Amino acid sequence: DRVTIPWWDTEGILQGISGRALEDCKNKYKILEGSNKREVLYGIDIAQQNIRRTGVAIITEGFCDVWKCRMMGFSNSVALMGKSLSFNQKKKILSLANIVVLALDPDKTGLIATRKINTELSPFCTTRIVKLPSDKDIGDLTELEFKQIVEPHLQ
Predict the structure, then answer these.
(1) Rounded Cα distance, 42 and 77, in Å
(2) Quick check: 55 and 87 in contact, CB under 8 A?
(3) Under a CB-based contact definition with an 8 Å cutoff, are residues 59 and 43 in contact?
(4) What is the pLDDT of residues 131-154, one digit of tens each?
(5) Helix (H, G, I), strand (E, B) or coil at 143
(6) What average pLDDT score do residues 87-111 get?
């Protein structure tokens, strides 16, 4: 069983569809052929107005992380849908935000990606890195943990 997750660009044009397994399995995500996740940040269609208004963008890895941020009241969050930031994604974020909060997963590849993205963005904007507990990504945080760990980076 999978949940279907569409994503749109800043103009509201459908750019792709992903299926996420509801239970742990080998292929957690399946992306519809023809979808290009490297060109669009998940959630940018909703987040762009709030990023522009606040000047702050929260970059996460996946869909559930964005959903958690939004449940906590932060609609300026987007997801890479992976572990790297493409040229077009970087260009879009830098056109909207002067502060970028990196909240990628705390696993080895997430930490490497955080360092790489921080290096790419820091010459152009202020970057802040959320240090998550080693056993949790942003989508796993309780409301209290979110307030203690993530919110200080958003001030």
Answers:
(1) 9
(2) no
(3) no
(4) 999 988 888 888 899 889 988 998
(5) helix
(6) 95
Listing DSSP states for 22-90 in one string gives SS--S--EEE-TT--TTT--BTHHHHHHHHHHHSEEEEESSHHHHHHHHHTT---EEE-SSS---HHHH
CA distance 147 to 153: 10
Task: Give the pTM.
Answer: 0.90
Can you say whether the dihedral through the CA atoms of 60, 113, 108, 18 is positive or negative?
positive
Quick one: tokens of 153? 């980076």
Q: How confident is the model over 13-45, as pLDDT tens digits?
A: 888 888 878 777 677 777 777 777 778 899 999
Cα 62 from Cα 76, distance rounded (Å): 14
85, amino acid identity:
L
